[in-house]
Amino acid sequence: MKFHKAFQLNGQLFRNSEELLAYSCQGSEELHSFLQQWLNDSIELKVMTSGSTGVPKEISLRKEHMKNSAKATGVFLKLGVKTKALLCLSPNYIAGKMMLVRALELGWDLDVVKESSSPLEQLDKVYDFVAMVPLQLSNSLQFLHRVKTLIVGGASVSPRLCQSLQGASCVVYATYGMTETTSHIALKRLNHGQSEKESQIYRVLPEVSISVDHRGCLVIDANKVSSERITTNDLVKIVGKDAFHWLGRHDTVVNSGGIKLIPEQIEIKLVEIISQRFFLAGLPDETLGEKLVLLIEDSRKSVLNGKEVKNFLKKANLSKFEYPKEIHFVKKFEETQTKKIKRKSTLEMI
């Protein structure tokens, strides 16, 4: 497998795959392992899904699809040859793998640092492009002048964090995608003059078509990055032919007494008054069928209900149907290896 002649890794140029592999032995085992797999003659690469909505599983991605995804991101964000980029994510997962593929295919100057919660803190270079998860972004706010364009994914960006980005000099995009779509297929800009309405809109990458099924869930046709049409469980509103507004997950909708509640939309209203991690979900109820409950990551063991709930959430602009029937405090949420909350298994804890 060839790579772009301008590609650099930690400032080093390489004449061939043998030189690159020999150099990568000095770095992390994860990096070396990925490059071994990428540079061999196989047309596919084995990757692990995140496990945020189920059990993590190994799937195969075509290397040609990964190359096409890299090129589409380069076109969308105008990141050409000699882009200075930083890899601060694990090469074990799709986001880290795709940073490497973009660099190899597009001829970037890529620095690789050990994964940490504050990757920019010890660096003094200015980068054209960086990818992070929300925790890293939250811990890097004071260092964002060192980045020109940043994408954030792996978990949702809270309204509070989004507000903190408005004064940043770099342009920040949230990503939409999954391992099965070879990383992201859509981006939404979170700052730099975006209105509140515009900041909710994902715009798809080149050669990606979108529609909705009978449930209102997103359907993705992107034969450049996936061999099959992908039907998701994400409730969306299509905005034009190449954009959509993400509403929530179909499999988390709570049907409470005939009223369908989308937890993710209600959570947006609560983020300003709850500082800890939290989420809303449904539990069986004899009268309502399902009752809406709020889980907060907190060491206390109490459970609030009735008037206690309304007093706790009185500052939130909730409709009468949006008030949870109970608040449960959970010492530690269940997580995937990439730090996404596992809602189903956390809910089972109560």
What can you see in these coordinates?
With 350 residues, the protein is α/β, with parallel strands linked by helices. It folds into two domains: 242 residues, 3-Layer(aba) Sandwich (Rossmann fold), CATH 3.40.50.12780; 96 residues, ANL, C-terminal domain (GMP Synthetase, Chain A, domain 3, 2-Layer Sandwich). Helix content is 22%, strand content 31%. The chain has nine helices and 21 strands. The strands form four sheets. The chain has a 13-stranded mixed beta sheet. The chain has a four-stranded mixed beta sheet with strand order 18-19-21-20. Strands 3-4 form a two-stranded antiparallel ribbon. The protein starts with 7 loop residues before the first strand and ends with a helix. 36% of the residues are buried. The model has no long low-confidence stretch (mean pLDDT 92).
Q: In summary, what is this structure?
A:
This protein is an alpha/beta fold. It folds into 2 domains: 242 residues, Rossmann fold (3-Layer(aba) Sandwich); 96 residues, GMP Synthetase, Chain A, domain 3 (2-Layer Sandwich), CATH 3.30.300.30. The protein is 22% helix and 31% strand.
Number of domains: 2
Number of strands: 21
Class per helix and strand makeup: alpha/beta
End-to-end gap: 50 Å
In the CATH classification, which architecture of the largest domain applies? 3-Layer(aba) Sandwich
